[in-house]
Amino acid sequence: MKIFLLFLAVSSLFAQGGGVSPTELLKPLKNDWPTYNGDYSGRRFSALKDIDTATVKNLSLAWSARYTPGMNQGGRGRFGGTPVPLIVGGEGTGEFAAGGGSIKGSSLMVDGILYFTMPDNAWAVDARDGREIWHYYWKTRGGTHIGNRGVAMWNNYLYMETPDNYLVSLDARTGKERWHKTIAELDQGYFSTPAPIVVGDHVLVGTGNDIDSPGFLLSFNAETGDLEWKFYTVPMQKGDPGLDTWASLDAARHGGAQTWIPGAYDPETKLYIIGTGNPTPAYTTGKRGDGDNLFTCSLVAINVDTGKMAWYFQTSPHDMHDYDSAQTPILVDAPFDGKMRKLVLTAARNGYFFTLDRTTGERLLTAKYGEFTNWAKGLNKFGGPQPDRSKDPSVGGALVSPTSDGTVNWQPPAFSPDTGLFYVPEGNGFSLFYLTDLDPRGSMGLGGKEEAGVGTGGNYLSAIDYRTGKAVWRHRYYGNGGGGGLLATAGGLVFGGDGAGSLVAYDARNGKALWNTRIGNVTNAPQTFLLDGHQYLTVATGDTMWAFILN
Q: How many contiguous H segments (helices) and E segments (strands) does the chain have?
């Protein structure tokens, strides 16, 4: 009888739905959380509003659970202490242990199940109580394990990237591996952190590094794993667009522009809009010349069916401070200068905010949102910031704001169509940038400089009007601020970590803190979903997941 009941329970758990169909991913975010930013727009805006400015004070803890990466996972399942299935894959020998881990990416919530990752690890857990259903562990060949941004889902299949540069496909119901494919060569210095994004039957993946190698975006077939196309973010052949902004073809081919963070997708134009990273070498100019170094530190729009670039806009021409533009772009249909426009918005790491037409790439607005940002002097002929060469790293030191960590780093922002405001952490740190390598050929990667932090002008949660680029309000953080990113809801709230160990709910209209709980340093952006008629809020602190529910 017990076996029969266990069978019914397990059958019920996996019969709740059929995963995420490609057509479901086209819909605005509502009850589930099926992709990295909730939906393709990048807004991280939920239409759920049971938790609102009046009821948020009644939020209470539904459950919390700690998850152990690696082979010695010890978790117990939902039913009667049944051991959790541990599925092991990977090309490594096991000599590189997983070690500790942190949940830095978005959790997906589909059919009552949460899916989330740490480097080399993926879990499926019951969203009602946090108990593990399965755990997948990848035996790595190495690579840099700074974080993993989560999984993507297509029907009943999951996709994750590994630090040693593989795309792995799992059966979401069992955690069993379907296949894995090479993204990049480990011996070339790449490591992979992004969450894949699925568009139709395309699985879009990127990678990262800060050594002298070209950045790119790949598309794999969701069913077979076959490579469909590869788009390089720097010129790779004679005659390629942008080559004239580099000292030579060889310099461009070693020019960086990694695709660290997932982008946003516009179904109407079939354009996937993604930000690119800094040029390399990052702090010395000799090797890459004095040009803009396209398409580094840019927003790039790519046709998902062809892998061809439709337009670009560079946010940091000839970057000299490691100001990646690999932040989450947000797609909005909203009025600008008196008429409705199809917009893409981004708050870049360099302290500038941009509003563009997302169909053409036309720049509509450039505004400085970092309160003390000082590395540029006006705008260039394209509407991007014009670098002030006196702020480049120098032997005597250049005082620059923001620091190389930026006003914001990788943490996803949020946008509320109800307020028309763009919410983003704003860090106003100062650093002295010293040039330590005077060889005109330049240093590799991030070499050739020293950076000394010398203070801050304050850290904030900022609410920016996309029409002006100005902050409507700022809420000052007590700590570094920002946590792992933000969530906006139709309940009139913005959720995020405060940098001082608390998860906070802010009034989206004025920034007033309405509720908080001290759970530790928040390491990912919160998610919300509806399950069994109840609105949940989930967030991570390191290796621990927390779920809150209205009391």
A: 2, 37
Could you count the other beta carbons within 10 Å of the beta carbon of residue 237? Answer: 10
Q: 354 near 381, Cβ under 8 Å? A: no
Confidence of residue 5 (pLDDT cuts 50, 70, 90): very low
| Two tokens, residue 158 | 């999951």
Q: Which of 17-21, 262-266, 443-447, 515-519 has the lowest mean pLDDT?
A: 17-21
What phi, psi does 106 have (nearest 5°)? Answer: -75, 145
Distance, CA of 369 to CA of 303 (rounded, Å): 30
pTM, full prediction: 0.95
The pLDDT assigned to 8 comes to 35
Taking CA atoms, 172 is separated from 113, 116, 155, 156, in Å, by: 10, 11, 9, 5
Structure tokens at 254: 């070693």
Q: Which residue has the tokens 């620091």?
A: 403
Q: Is 473 helix (H, G, I), strand (E, B) or coil?
A: strand
- State whether the Cα torsion 74-79-82-88 is positive or negative: negative
d(CA 430, CA 316): 18
d(CA 246, CA 255): 9
- What CA–CA distance (Å, rounded) separates 493 from 97? 40
Distance CA 320, CA 252 (A): 16
Beta strand residue intervals within 390-448, DSSP E: 398-400, 414-416, 421-435
Measured in whole angstroms, how far is the alpha carbon of residue 181 from the centre of its chain? 22
pLDDT in tens, 142-157: 999 999 999 999 999 9
Identify whether 335 is preceded by a cis peptide bond (ω within 30 of 0): no
* SS3 track for 330-349: EEEEEEECCEEEEEEEEECC
**Which has the closest alpha carbon to 278: 186, 213, 351?**
213
> For residue 494, which of 522, 465, 466, 462 has the smallest C-alpha distance?
462
Residue with token string 């379907």: 178
Specify the pLDDT at position 71: 82
- Alpha-carbon span 216 to 274, nearest angstrom: 11
Cα–Cα distance for residue pair 538/529, rounded to 1 Å = 9
Sheet arrangement for strand 534-541: 59-66, 544-550, 534-541, 527-531
Q: Which of 53, 55, 104 is nearest to 539 (CA)?
A: 104
**pLDDT tens sequence across 9-54:** 343 444 445 799 999 999 999 999 999 999 999 999 999 999 999 9
33 dihedral zone (left: phi>0; alpha: psi -120 to 50; beta)? beta
Give the model's pLDDT for residue 98. 58
* Structural contact between residues 503 and 512, judged by C-beta atoms closer than 8 angstroms: no
328 SS3 class: coil
Above 70 in pLDDT, residue 311? Answer: yes
Q: Which amino acid is at 516?
A: N
